[in-house]
Amino acid sequence: MTVPINWDLDSIFPGGSESAEFAAFVAQLTADIAAAKAQPALPALSPKTQSQWTDAINQLYNLSERLFHAGSFTGCLVAQDVNDDKARLLDGELDSLHARLETLWTRFAADAANQPDAAWDALLATDALRPVAFDLNEHRTQAKEKLPAEVEALIAELAADGYHAWDQLYNVVSGSKQVEFEEAGEKKTMSLGQLQSKYNDAPDRDVRRRAFALFEKTWAELAPVISMALNYQAGFRLTTYNHRGWDSVLKEPLFDNRMRRETLDTMWGVIAQKSDRLLDYFDAKAKVLGLDRLTWFDVNAPIGNLKSDFSFEEAADFVVENLARVNPDIANFCRMAIDSGWVESENRPGKRAGAFCTRLPLKHETRVFMTFSGSYNGLSTLAHELGHGYHGYVLRDMPFGAQRYTMSVAETASTFNELVVTDAYLNQSSDDGERLGLLDRKLGDATAFLMNIRARFDFEREFFARRANGQLSVDDLSALMVDAQKTAYHDGLSQYHPLFWASKLHFYITRAPFYNFPYTFGFLFSHGIYAMAQEAGAGFKDRYIALLRDTGSMDTETLAKTHLGVDLTKPAFWETAVDEVLAAVDAFVALAKKNSI
């Protein structure tokens, strides 16, 4: 059979953004959220009122599941056609519903926090709520550590036009900026994102050098406004935390990621001790490129000779066949998802950039979005996103309140898939140029997660410490960023990126503070699991599925202890994971010697 290259959205709601069925779905959801808001406050919790509390909780989960389903659908519509104005309007309408539903959850959590512990524990011990007890306890615990519900509601309302507005300002300022760049005698108008791709990906070093110089120059022009966004959104957070009595800016992101500070500190400690091994990779890559030392714009420079003419069907078959050797369940899911039209892969204009996987909980299905261009990167992306899909699939029969997993473990299944496929391709290839390109890709990922993200984390932590005493200037921020980069990269580069604090969108995502360390955690967590799977063989399959199923019902440390038998607050697991990541250095150095200019 021919493998479909377009996803099937009509089986979710027929008619795309003009779907009458979807319009009716959203209208009913809107009415139901309004009705829930109009309901009287819950009575004091007791054996007699348990059923009222259970009904209210089930109603909140029902509304949340339906809204998630609707949001996934509109997200797919917007991604497949950037010119679908109706889809964007629908997406904005759902944002408003999210805010209203968030208010209902805040009110419920505050009510729950006011109930006696014994009555609350008895409620969660019932058959109806035991499967979602972990999630409900999280809501209650967080409410106890926040201000009264009416004050938190006011903060959320003010944040829409204040705190979150700085995020929107950043997106508008950075997204609308265009530059003129000359290449091969032709001047082209580019977005900053396109210019960044030039300095990262262009084979010609002069192109990379000029693109990076223009990139820095342009961000320097934007920096005065961008620094206001960073300073003022940080001020909002610090003021809010101060009124809540929170003494650390890491309290919220650690809670959001269900992680202890000891775990985070141990992970970064091991990385600090071991990541200097990447300097051997830097030296070897510099020699391949004919350089003495790498600069910031050389780190991701393409080398080697990766295959670039895969058909989508070939890529799909390669992913399925090699995953089957490790875990047939994952392979069977991937085959089903591909053949059922759950993957949008067509290389056509009008699609948004990037790739993602989204769950459709009411259908117990997922959808994967990507643009497949025939490259090895496309093959790897397919494996990665199908890993996300598999994670959602193994959770499909669980209550919605037990399906929410954190950013810190969200990359577990996706990175696992990617590792399996990359190693399979590496083992099957006999071409030195191809193997060099694959190893460079693996070590490029290691550089990103062990160095680049470490620099982001160190910068942001130090920035908040200083911001508590006043605003930082553009020069202050740039100096702070270079210091963080030099530390994280073990001073292994000859040139850094002072304005990275301005150019990196992640620093401005107000709905996910410290949008950095969960990436490194997930990357290493998955590598640690992959190492265990290789050692255990086929017997690891059931443990892996059980781990994924519990990602919505356990904190990170309990998850690792229960299913892997490891203590994340101790160095051993992280040392194994980092060693697994850095194992490619010696092979790369050996191959690079053959390919040096």
- Proportion in helices: 55-70%
The overall pLDDT, averaged over residues, is 94
Shape: globular
Strand order of the largest sheet: 3-5-4
Compute the number of structural domains.
Answer: 3
Q: Could you say which structural class the secondary elements and strand pairing correspond to?
A: mainly alpha
Strand fraction band? under 5%
Number of helix segments?
A: 25
The Rg value, from CA coordinates, equals 25 Å
Question: Care to describe what's here?
Answer:
By secondary structure, the protein is mainly alpha-helical. It has three domains: 19-161, Oligopeptidase f, N-terminal domain (Butyryl-CoA Dehydrogenase, subunit A, domain 3); 247-302 and 431-597, no CATH class; 306-428, Collagenase (Catalytic Domain) (3-Layer(aba) Sandwich). The chain contains 25 helices and five strands. The strands form two sheets. A three-stranded mixed sheet has the order 3-5-4, sandwiched between helices. Strands 1-2 form a two-stranded antiparallel sheet. The longest helix has 40 residues, at 205-244. The two termini are 46 Å apart.
In short:
The protein is mainly alpha-helical. It has helices at residues 20-38, 50-80, 85-113, 117-124, 133-144, 149-161, 163-176, 192-201, 205-244, 251-256, 261-274, 278-288, 312-324, 328-339, 376-394, 407-410, 412-428, 432-467, 474-488, 500-503, 517-536, 541-549, 556-564, 571-582, 584-595; strands at 178-183, 186-191, 343-344, 356-360, 365-369. Helix 18 (432-467) packs across helix 21.
